[in-house]
Amino acid sequence: MRIGAIDIGTNSMRLLIADYEDGNLLNREKFVNTTRIGEGVDKKGYISQEAIQRNIDGLIDFNRMCKDRKCEKVYCIGTSALRDSKNGDDFIQLAKNKADIDVEIISGKEESTLGFIGVAEGLTDRLKEEESILVLDIGGGSTEFILGNLKGIKFNKSENIGAVRMTEKFLKADPISEEEFKSMIRFIEEQINDTIEFLKNKKIDKVVGIGGTITSISAINQELETYSMEKIHNSSVDIEEVEKILQNLKKMTLNDKKNLKGLQPKRADIITSGVKILQIIMKKIEIKNIIVSEYDNLEGLICRKSQKMS
């Protein structure tokens, strides 16, 4: 069965089209549209009319692609920005009326669970059943921490720190001002302190990263001219490489970042805060290396929905 899965994230809307056969995902295709539904939500509490229009247009486009590729089912989830906005229900109604898409706003916990299912699906050969895995998903509006093994999830927590949210809240100057940067660091550390303290005392065998920040770091690290799912998936990044990228980004103007090899220009304004979130987490939990997974909550969504149907 061919299935479409859409994730309306704070920064970007993503579509996965795949065939689900006998418990396996085949012929995966992924598409991204930087629709930034979360623009201003943290400050104003509402999705702006411009952001609503961008995202409705994006949904119409993605639904057309699903029809062209003969998807039998299309599932759509909304995450951090839709959870936090006061007019999320208005958007859901418009999505149904204008784009013929049913949007399900999911909790941070459910988002974490789908991400973990996706990782387990994509890294089956690399993960052992008893291994303790920490999955980090640094998104635009939130960061998910998920600890578990192939038998199930033991702990998950969604924290309201994300690349878009932190950039809007703190980083106004170009290039970045040291004072603003330090304020952002203090805020991030305060927000995630309890989660970090909890995880420090847990056995963690492997750390896996999903989401736009970590895939961008891998692409920058590999200096990819063109984004490649194959080259990103199962790649790994060391803490030293993360810190080197961070130091370079801090010195760059926005225009420099837009021309940086491996980085999508539309992510240039938010990448520095995303990399800093990852660096803080890796340093505090003493993570030396992180595996990058191209399988994430979209794959998790298709697996979960398909298993419920069978």
TrEMBL record:
Sequence intervals crossing the membrane: none
UniProt-listed CDD domains: ASKHA_NBD_AaPPX-GppA_MtPPX2-like
Alphabetized GO MF terms: pyrophosphatase activity
Domain Ppx/GppA phosphatase N-terminal: 26-306
Pfam families in the cross-refs: Ppx-GppA
Family: Belongs to the GppA/Ppx family.
Protein name: Exopolyphosphatase / guanosine-5'-triphosphate,3'-diphosphate pyrophosphatase
Species of origin: Asaccharospora irregularis DSM 2635
